[in-house]
Amino acid sequence: MFEVTLFGAAFAGILSFVSPCVLPIVPFYISYLAGVGLGDFKEGTEISKNVQRRAILSSLFFASGMVTIFVGMGATASAFGHLVREWFGVLRWFAAVLIILMGLHFLGFLKIRALNRQLKWKLDPPRTVRRQSFWHQRWLKLREIL
């Protein structure tokens, strides 16, 4: 394995940001975060300080939320990997057999009935509404307490 330096990771992030897939959508994304439509911009006028501040704050909160989520997911995956490290040999063979079986089923050489089933939940609308109302009331009560 090779080690990734901080400079290398930052360079890769900047390179992915200026890629032709991402860079053209940045103005639309920032205007969406700021809550401003492209129709609000008039030729020759400046963007108000309030809109600029809202766009910057929204972008920072969005980025910090994404970082938090992905770091948490990475830490969880790493912890799970450490837990099953001694079983990697067995898990590799199990995964190989499973992939081969799924491929044979997909090609039609093997019929696995459980994979051809379609599950549908038939919910009674009045019960669903009551259940949603129950949880909504609990949420409102919790907000009052906090």
What would a concise description of this structure say?
The chain is mainly alpha-helical. It is built from 5 helices and no strands.
Report what the structure shows.
Helix 2 packs across helix 3. The protein is mainly α. It contains 5 helices and no strands. The two termini are 48 Å apart. 66% of the residues lie in helices and 0% in strands.
Distance N to C terminus? 48 Å
The residue-averaged pLDDT reads 82
Q: How many beta-strand segments?
A: 0
Strand content: under 5%
Throw out a few tags for this protein.
extended; 5 helices; 66% helix; mainly alpha; 146 residues
Give the topology.
Blueprint: H1 6-17, H2 26-34, H3 49-83, H4 88-107, H5 125-145
